[in-house]
Amino acid sequence: METSVQISLAAWSLHRRFWARELDPLDLARKAHDAFGLAGVEHASRFIPDRATDFGYLAEMKKRADDAGVKSVLLKVEERGPLAAGDAPERFTAIDRHFPWIVAAAFLGCDWVSVGAEGTGVGAPYLDAMADSLQRLAAIADGYGIGVLVGNRFGLSCDGSWMKALIAKTAHPRVGVHLNADNFELGGGKVYPRERGLEEMMPLAKALTARSYAFDARGDESTAGVASVAKLAVAAGFSGWVGVEYDGASLPEEEGVAKTIAMLRRIWPDATSTSR
What we know:
Blueprint: E1 7-10, H1 15-19, H2 28-36, E2 40-44, H3 55-68, E3 71-76, H4 88-108, E4 112-115, H5 123-142, E5 147-151, H6 160-170, E6 175-180, E7 185-187, E8 190-191, H7 194-201, E9 205-212, H8 226-235, E10 241-246, H9 253-275
Parallel strand pairs: 1-2, 1-10, 2-3, 3-4, 4-5, 5-6, 6-9, 9-10
Antiparallel strand pairs: 7-8
Helix pairs in contact: 2-3, 4-5, 5-6, 6-7, 8-9
């Protein structure tokens, strides 16, 4: 059984440096390679909001990644409209606004785009609308050789049973889950049981986000329980990329990222050996 883990650098890990313009998104791949020894990155549309159709810019981003020997794993698409909107014109507009990012992701060499399940309403209509949007997006993405993942960002997408129903209803081989191991807020002050959500969604996950905040003296993540997430991932046969997303405030971003990577490289073999 494979004991190593493929680790990618999620752009959000360096969000403070991006916002302060201390780091250029074009250099994400070089930073991943030179500072952390990683071979994968996860881009985010929020840091390049006007670049979806700027192929000169994207070509430079791809060149820098290729030169560094780093793969662009996925592109996280945000704030492009509600794919589960109850109003059909609003939903179709959201689909149209996601389309350029699918093209951009394919151009960069990504395997996936990651989308949200934002919308209005509850119950079956919400599920039906989101499944229809995923089917339409997957049909587009399929032509570009990539897939579509839906992330558990907020609301119903953080409900593991709802996500299982969504993926089943969508029923497309290029559709899966981008599982953030620490996102289970349903809204209204309600939180979905974390362990239950992880167990329900892990078998559907094609990409996994390991979010970290703080570390104990041994170097283990002391807030988000990443070690238990690794055990669940290995037990479920997860074989995708694990994206590092440091979101703490007690350490400089680069130090937090480095600690998260070191922890993942240490705990993943342990999780593998205990699952045998």
